[in-house]
Structures are given as C-alpha cells and as structure tokens.
Design brief:
Number of helices: 21
Number of strands: 23
C-alpha cells in the first residue's frame, strides 16, 4: 500500500499477533492515528479525550498519556480487523461537520471552516486528484493539436505542469536550461542545503511518498524524489535539456508566441506556441552584489547557487558574505572543516529551532506511512497546518499595540521572547554576541529561518561574525567598513536571488511592449500571481506575490497555479478560441486587495528591509493570503475576467 492502504492487504496486516501490530503502531505519532481511527470507525469519543493533550499541530506539541494511546491502538486494531474480516471498502472522506471537529482537535485550535474544501482536496481520500482539470465536453485530437504549449523550466512547478498537460492530452514541450530535472534544487548543491518545510508536505499532493529518510530532507533527497516523479510521469519525450529561452514575443496577428531558444552549442532557433507557461519561479537567478574589487580577488569566489565542488575548503580561510537561508545552512556545514570562517552579516535574522530538523524518519514510521490506511494523509494535514496558516494571525499589526517597533501584537511579542531565549541559550549567555544577532524588527519581518546549529556555530573558536559591512574586496580578502582586512583563501557569496525580477533575464514581449516596461526592475505584478494584462496566453508559476512568507509549501502554491492555468487552457480549447488576456479591471482590483492586505502584515513594517519588498517598499514576492484563501481564489477560472479572442471576434 502506498500511504492510504488497500483493503486487500488489511487481512495480512491484522492476521498476525495483535501484540506485534500494537508494537508497530506504538512507533507512530498518536494524532494521525487518532484521525485514522475516527475516520475508519466514525467514533468521535476519543477526540474529546485527546483534546486537552494536544497543544499544537507538531508531534512534539502532543503529550497524551500512554494509557490513552494504548486504548487508541486497541480500538484501531479492532477496527482494522473488522474491515479485514468483513471485506469492507475504505470509507470516503468524513462528513464536513466531523471533518471540522477532527481538524480542530488535531491541531489544538479551531481551524477556519473555509479550510475544509482545501483539506478534502489536499488529502484526496478517493485517490482521484481533485486538482486535475477534466474536459467538460469531448475534444478531438485535431482540436488539441491547435494548442501547443511551451513550458519553461523543469523544477517542481514545471514538472507538475508537464504532468497535467500530458494527462489532458494537450501537446507541449518543456525547455530546461540545465542537463537534469530539479530546478533550484538541482542548482543549489552547497554543503548543508536542505528544505525548511517538512517534506511529507513539501511534495506533490498527487504523488506522496512514504520513504523519506528525514523530516526536513537535504538537497540530494529532494532531487531523488523529483527524479523519481519525473521517471514515472512519462513526459521524457517532451523535454529539451540544455536549452534556454532567450525571448518570447506575442504575434497578435497569428495569435501565438514566437519563442527564441538557444541550444548548448550557442545556436538559436524559434518555436511557436499557443501558450507559454513559465516555471522558472522566484529563486532562479543568483543575486551578485556589486562590491568594489571583486574581480581582483586571487582565490576562488563563487555564489552559493553555483557552488564550486572542485574547491577543497579543508583548513582554508573562508569568508562568507550573507546570513540568509543559504548562509545559515552553509556556515554550520563548513565550519568544522575550514581553518577559519569569517561571516559578514548585513542584518540579523530570526531563526527557530525545530526538534525534527535533523531527525531521521524511523523504519517504524515509514512502515506506518506505507501500511496504515489514511495515515499518510492525516499526517500531511498536520504538517500543512503546523507550517502555515496557524502562524499568520501573529503577523498582523495591532494598531493599539504599545511596542510596534519590535513586535506586532501580544502573540508576536511572545514569539520574540521565545526566540531570544533560544538564542541566549545557544550562545552560552554571550550577551555581546546576542546583541549582534538579535533583529530589531518583529519576528517574521524577514523570512523565518530554521536554526540548524547556526548560533552555536558562531561561538566556535574558528568563526568570527562581522557586522560592520563590506567595503571592498582585495586580492588578499575582504575589507570591512571599519577598514579591517579579513584575509581569505575562498570567498562565498550567500547573497540570495533576483526574486524581485521574475522571468529575468528572458525578454517577454506582449501586445504593448515588454514585461520590463510594465514591471520595471523590481515591481512585478500579476493577477493571482499568474497572468498579466497585455500578455495573452502567458502563465507564470511561482510568480509575483505567491511566495509563502508565513510558511506553507511552495509546492502547494504551484499546484494551485497549475490548476488555474489548466482551467484557463480548457476554457480556451473548448471554446475553440485563440487567446485570453486578463482585463485591466480585475487585475487592478486584485492588486489593490493584495496591497491593502499587506499593509496590515509584518512585511510592510517600517523597520524591515527584506527581499520581499522593492525599493519603493511594496511587497512584490510574498502572498498575504491563507493557503485556503489562495486555493479558493485559484480553484475557479472566471472567463469574465478575461478578453477572449476567437480570430477577429472578441468575447
């Protein structure tokens, strides 16, 4: 069984010694087991018994008495045996009212009712992907042949798009600049690279996995998963590796895109497509700082996303510039190996500890994910809520809060105090160092990072934290703004990406000029983060304003965007139309709602300077919405929001 279980194997599951099965179940998290039991039996009595012992959605926030857990296992074994003995099929999703009660108990707080459609869809109890778009009427092969789609990029988003296009029978080609799948996970191979969202949720809802080795997978494990999905998907014949899209120009007379593509050998050719879908995302092109003297350095110098594995850091003097997400992973990974590590910090970040960050998934846990009906699904729900919307209310500004400079509300202040207490403990009470690493802005003002022994690394004898900033680079090393030279054999730029310039460096030309004419260098805007006026049949995955700054999974958001794109293509194809272009009115209305919501949230706090905001202070990368709200916004395609053209006729 893969995650949700097959009735035919239940007999084997319960045929053996009940004590052995109980031992297996005792190695699993009790809350998903509680939800499995309630789902299979319809008995809600244990929900109330467990409720007082569940303080949050993480497994380490549950302290249920062993006697209560034993009773749960006893009842679950009896229920599984009843299903096996009577050849009962697994039940459908719970009724909505019961589902609501189950979710409330599972995460230790009331879950907004608007979450229920998303939960039913995400957990996919009937194993027919609810996000798949199905034809409403027969469509001939000849009709489909008129609508070739060109997808740019084969990371998480591009692969999902390819899978859904193949599923629908729409002709498509994927252009990937690298020689393998994976996108940003392929390109970022630096020491310590890992996901900061639990991978049992940071994975496709239509292809869950029970064999993750870690709760927070490192890069190679993520790539292994993506490659496995790619191999199973049957899209290989549609992929062109080691080719790069340079330009896409809309031909309004022909009603198609003309896409200029460069091969590995430097030669170029043009491909036409009825629609173009960008899966390049926000974290695609490294941001290289303009530092005086960079070209003069006599040793290796490289960006974290272009890691030079031919450079041996053993015993070397290494300067790391940047302390964001990549920097916080690189520092602890290389500090034990290098001779000396100098870390330049422009501004400090908040970072939380998670007990599961380096924990391995036990064989017992893998067994449960593989064999217990619905266990994977309910475990995924817990992670969905633990990592996302449960935190969003704490990021909303309280206009009457008396300490607005350092926190937003009472809950946000409590988080701040918890984070400082953690840092103080990790730093061994070094108050001078604590002052350097404590942000002045409220928690979550910048991306909340995971503390993978970052603060302990700063206390090592061979590590120095420099907060005065970089003045210049010389042949011998890096000079700080106090004029002090920090000698270096190797310089690492952990300086992030051009997230405020999605689609860069491609030239995208629509009906009234290029995308840069509309967006400038750092003000990208798109309807629902997906479509832009004057760019017909262009769809952007992981586009402007869709990054989950408060948590969640980028894969979840991408699946929402893939569905919306498929709904748009279905509308186009079933009508026999040629193009659709989002109208200015709904586009502007969405931007106003987007900006108004952000005005209430932490990322517009005046004390914050982050990669979420452009030079004018507008948030351009992050989504302000709950996951459930964004799902609802993208679950339906509204033809009235678009100008739909059929030859010379407009609808």
């Amino acid at each position: 069984m893969t995650g949700s279980g097959e009735v035919g194997t239940l007999k084997a599951l319960v045929a053996g010694d009940a004590k052995v099965l109980d031992t297996h179940l005792s190695q699993l998290d009790p809350v998903p087991l509680l939800l499995v039991y309630t789902h299979l039996s319809g008995d809600e009595s244990l929900l109330e018994e467990f409720r007082p012992h569940i303080k949050g959605a993480w497994s380490f926030e549950v302290e249920a008495p062993e006697a209560l857990q034993a009773e749960l296992r006893r009842r679950l074994i009896a229920t599984l045996k009843d299903y096996a003995d009577h050849d009962r099929p697994l039940p459908p999703a719970p009724p909505v009212a019961r589902l609501q009660r189950m979710c409330d108990v599972a995460v230790g707080q009331p879950v907004p009712p608007e979450y229920m459609p998303m939960v039913l869809e995400e957990l996919n109890f009937d194993r027919t992907d609810a996000k798949s778009v199905r034809w409403r009427k027969p469509v001939s092969a000849d009709s489909l042949a008129r609508y070739p789609v060109l997808v740019i990029g084969l990371g998480y988003s591009g692969l999902a798009m390819a899978i859904k296009l193949k599923e629908a029978g729409i002709p498509f080609t994927v252009i990937e600049k690298n020689d393998d799948v994976g996108g940003t996970w392929y390109e970022n191979s630096y020491p310590g690279v890992a996901v900061d969202t639990p991978n049992h949720f940071y994975s496709y809802s239509f292809r869950t996995s029970s064999d993750w080795d870690h709760y927070f997978a490192q890069g190679p494990e993520i790539i292994k998963y993506i490659r496995a999905v790619y191999a199973e998907s049957g899209v290989k014949e549609h992929i062109r590796f080691e080719q790069e899209v340079l330009r896409a120009e809309w031909d309004d007379r022909a009603q198609h895109w003309a896409v200029t593509i460069r091969r590995k050998d430097g030669s170029e050719y043009t491909e036409t497509a009825k629609a173009v879908v960008s899966g390049t995302g926000l974290l695609n092109r490294p941001s290289i700082p303009d530092i005086t003297g960079m070209d003069s350095f006599k040793g290796p110098l490289f960006h974290s996303a272009r890691w030079d594995h031919g450079v041996d850091l053993t015993g070397k003097r290494v300067v790391q510039i940047g302390t964001g997400a990549s920097g916080m992973q690189i520092g602890p990974a290389i500090a034990p190996q290098v001779g000396h590590l100098t870390i330049f910090q422009r501004s400090p970040h908040w970072a939380r500890k998670n007990p599961l960050l380096f924990a391995e998934v036990t064989d017992g846990k893998k067994w449960g994910l593989e064999h217990i009906p619905f266990y994977t699904k309910w475990y995924r729900f817990q992670l969905l809520y633990a990592t996302s919307d449960g935190m969003l209310p704490t990021l909303r500004k309280d206009p009457n809060w008396p300490e607005p400079a350092t926190s937003l509300n009472a809950a946000n202040k409590e988080i701040r105090e918890q984070l400082i207490a953690h840092m103080r403990s990790e730093l061994g009470g070094d108050e001078e160092l604590l002052a350097k690493v404590t942000p002045s802005f409220p928690p979550y003002g910048k991306r909340m990072l995971r503390d993978g022994n970052w603060f302990r690394t700063l206390t090592r004898d061979n590590v120095e934290l420099v907060t005065s900033g970089v003045k210049e680079i010389t042949p011998e090393g890096v000079v700080d703004k106090d004029g002090v030279l920090h000698p270096a054999d190797v310089i690492i730029l952990a300086t992030g990406f051009k997230a405020q310039a999605p689609l860069y460096p491609m030239e995208i030309v629509g009906t009234h000029g290029s995308i840069r004419d509309q967006w400038g260098d750092d003000n990208p805007r798109a309807h629902l983060g997906i479509t832009a006026p004057d760019f017909p049949n262009l769809f952007i995955l992981y586009g402007p304003g869709t990054n989950g700054g408060h948590g969640g999974s980028a894969v979840f958001n991408s699946e929402c965007q893939v569905r919306y794109t498929m709904l748009a293509l279905r509308e186009l194809i079933e009508r026999g139309a040629d193009s659709l272009d989002v109208r200015r009115e709904p586009f502007d209305a969405y931007q106003q709602l987007f900006d108004a919501e952000h005005a209430q949230l932490v990322w517009t706090h005046p004390g914050v300077n982050n990669w979420y905001r452009n030079k004018d202070g507008r948030v351009v990368t992050n989504s302000p919405w709950r996951l459930s709200h964004y799902r609802n916004l993208t679950a339906d395609f509204k033809p009235a929001d678009y100008v739909i053209r059929t030859a010379k006729v407009e609808a």
